[in-house]
UniProtKB/TrEMBL annotation:
The chain crosses the membrane at residues 6-24, 36-55, 61-79, 99-117, 123-142, 168-190, 196-229. The keyword Membrane applies. Residues 263-416 form the GGDEF domain. CDD domains: GGDEF (cd01949). This is diguanylate cyclase. It catalyses: 2 GTP = 3',3'-c-di-GMP + 2 diphosphate. Keywords: Membrane, Transmembrane, Transmembrane helix. It holds the Pfam family GGDEF. GO terms for molecular function: diguanylate cyclase activity. One of its GO terms (cellular component) is plasma membrane. The lineage of its organism: Bacteria, Pseudomonadati, Pseudomonadota, Gammaproteobacteria, Alteromonadales.
Length: 416
């Protein structure tokens, strides 16, 4: 068992959440009529569970747990009746909700974002970021009097319901946050550009927290849970089916995919040339860099080709519905592209001889080198009346062998 990257921020959040709840309980329990204290065991137990799942490296489970807890906690919050309070108390309750929901909203987010453990500072930025986002959204909605909100208000009142946009709580603190909010939003957008779930949840959280209505909170709870669950499913599927080094589908995916193929397809086996020599000269890490670069190029092959890492320095391309003649040109183009692509790799240096040499090295950037790599290709196609994919792979492998024998950096087909 080892502490993975998101464990420490979660522990940090757990301590903050429990401390905040105890504080709220001590200070406001007499003013509010629902038992805030009930949430303490919920959140504490759930955070302990999250930490345990994280310690056992079950990140997908962590996300499931985080999202289910978000749902249960919010449901608990709103199912408990008896909010008979004065105006002053409404404000206090609103404050309590803001605080609690900020933490709860952050749980799934922290389940999704892999923040390096040593950067607890980053967690604080995310916390402040989501609070500022909330400030920005409530300001926008409350102050701009968007026509769409009036429309929604009318719609809700016409069916006898209270609009979630009514009585938006708006404090002077939000004014102070507005200047910074645009910047924070921008940072959130940039940081989460390849994590659409984070972005969606941050926005939903901001929306829900800004409105403080059961409807928007429930909407948030449902949507964030769905987003977390789907993210968990996608990430566990990716973990099982994608190759760890290159990120492209691995051998297991290929087997899966072969079962969905039509009766006509072309399959290409690709192998990096003289890779052993390359590894010996530049080191294993540089070898890994090359495998990643080659994989990214192969994955971009057009003509509706699907790329897989077959294993080691071998890749497979599958063209469903195509035959050798349909893909020959595509593969020749890919070969030329790889051959002429200058790859930047990090060069490993020999171990430092002394402490002072080691210090000096840390100040100089890691050396890079530009290398050229070539690949050999073997193409085969499905046999009439046979759906045996393994046999097609074997034929492509034999064609690849011919390409290696024929001098490498060339394409051979199972026919020739
Ligand atoms: N860096 C790195 N090397 C790998 C990986 N998988 C396999 N290899 C290395 O790839 C090399 C493959 O070598 P060989 O099968 O002898 O073939 P080759 O040197 O490419 O020669 P030809 O295929 O005949 O052109 C071996 O040295 C493996 O250790 C990997 O994931 N990363």
């Amino acid at each position: 068992m080892s502490v993975n990257k998101i464990t420490l921020p979660i522990i940090f959040m757990a301590i903050l959440s429990v401390a905040a709840m105890i504080f709220i309980h001590i200070n406001e329990a007499s003013l509010i009529s629902f038992p805030v204290a009930n949430l303490v065991p919920y959140v504490s137990i759930s955070l302990v569970l999250i930490i345990i799942f994280n310690l056992s490296m079950r990140q997908a489970l962590t996300m499931y747990v985080a999202s289910i807890i978000a749902l249960i906690t919010i449901a608990h919050f709103y199912v408990i009746p008896g909010l008979k309070i004065s105006d002053e108390q409404v404000k206090l309750v609103a404050n309590t909700k803001h605080l609690l929901l900020s933490f709860i909203a952050l749980l799934p987010i922290f389940g999704l974002v892999k923040i390096p453990a040593h950067k607890i500072f980053k967690s604080i930025i995310y916390l402040i970021g989501s609070l500022i986002t909330w400030g920005f959204f409530s300001f926008l909605i409350a102050k701009m009097e968007l026509p769409v909100i009036k429309l929604a208000d009318n719609m809700f009142s016409s069916i006898g319901m209270i609009s979630p946009f009514q009585d938006i709580w708006f404090s002077p603190l939000q004014f102070a946050l507005i200047g910074m909010s645009a910047m924070t939003l921008l940072i959130l957008v940039i940081k989460s550009s390849n994590n659409i779930y984070l972005l969606a949840i941050a926005f939903l959280a901001a929306f829900a927290i800004a409105h403080m209505s059961s409807l928007s909170i429930i909407l948030f709870a449902i949507l964030s849970s769905v987003l977390c669950l789907s993210s968990a499913m996608i990430s566990s599927r990716n973990m099982a089916f994608n190759d760890e080094l290159t990120g492209i589908p691995g051998r297991r995916s290929l087997t899966h995919y072969s079962e969905e193929l039509s009766s006509q397809y072309a399959v290409v086996m690709i192998d990096i040339d003289f890779f052993k020599r390359f590894n010996d000269k530049y080191g294993h890490d540089a070898g890994d860099d090359v495998i990643k670069l080659v994989a990214s190029k192969i994955a971009k092959t057009g003509n509706r080709g699907r790329a897989f890492r077959y294993g080691g320095e071998e890749f497979t391309l599958v063209f469903d519905g195509k035959l050798i003649d349909d893909v020959r040109e595509t593969i020749e183009d890919l070969r030329v592209q790889l051959e002429s692509y200058p790859m930047a790799i990090r060069i490993q240096r020999r171990p430092p001889k002394s402490a002072s040499e080691s210090r000096n090295r840390r100040q100089t950037p890691v050396k890079q080198d530009i290398v050229k790599v070539t690949c050999s290709f073997g193409i085969a196609e499905s046999m009439l009346g046979s759906s045996d994919f393994k046999a097609a792979i074997k034929r492509a492998d034999s064609a690849l062998y011919k390409a290696k024998k024929g001098g490498r950096n060339c394409v051979r087909t199972a026919q020739t």
